Amino acid sequence: MNLLIVDDEPLARAELLRLCGELLPGFRSTEASNLAEARSALLRESFDGVLLDMELGGYSGLDLIPDAKASGTPVVISTAHERFAVDAYDADVVDYLLKPVEVPRLFRAITKLSKMQKQQGDELVLLSDQCNCWPVKPSSILLVEAEGSYCKVLFTDRKELTVSRSLKEMEQMLATHSFIRANRGQMVNLNLIKVIHRQSSGRLVAELEGHEDIEFSRRQAQAFRSKFSL
């Protein structure tokens, strides 16, 4: 298991590391003392969970939860105060631990994270440009379009990323995640196609949510029909 431990107190981080080491020999961890370090870590690497303090040098740990959600990383709160519990659970945290953290409570939280890890059917993929990396869920990708030797990745929330991979490389990366090649320059998430229209010319046109229609090339239309026995 790979955990991100976020706490502005070195002794508190050291204690969590010690306790986790007792429960998970050989586990991996990254430490962050503030929100900026934690956000940077989430962009660089995929984690199975975040152990998050609620008071971070004048900032609230709640501010990190949207970033953790965006990267598909579940959050466990570790704090000395009960007063944040309602807001934390409203933000869908996995568990809420009070300091000093007791081993049985930490064991329960780690067990929840472990079950989520095993049930995770949509593992993260890492997209990058020349400056940054983003761990993302394939299910959040609507469409991938070729732009020279790069690709533009369009997401279901209508955000876009330009990444340093060719369409062929993206096709290989997403080969096990229900993506299909529509034409020479586009690849689409099959799970997010609303309907595929058959034209009299034999072409196929896919209707997507929140995006213009995508037309299959003759070659890819033939491959699609063959694959799905249409």
TrEMBL record:
Modified residues (4-aspartylphosphate): 53
GO molecular function terms listed in the Swiss-Prot or TrEMBL record: DNA binding
All residue ranges annotated as the Response regulatory domain in the record: 2-114
Keyword Metal-binding found: no
Keywords per UniProt: DNA-binding, Phosphoprotein
Membrane-spanning intervals of the chain: none
Keyword Transcription applies: no
Domain HTH LytTR-type, first and last residues per copy: 135-230
Protein name: LytTR family DNA-binding domain-containing protein
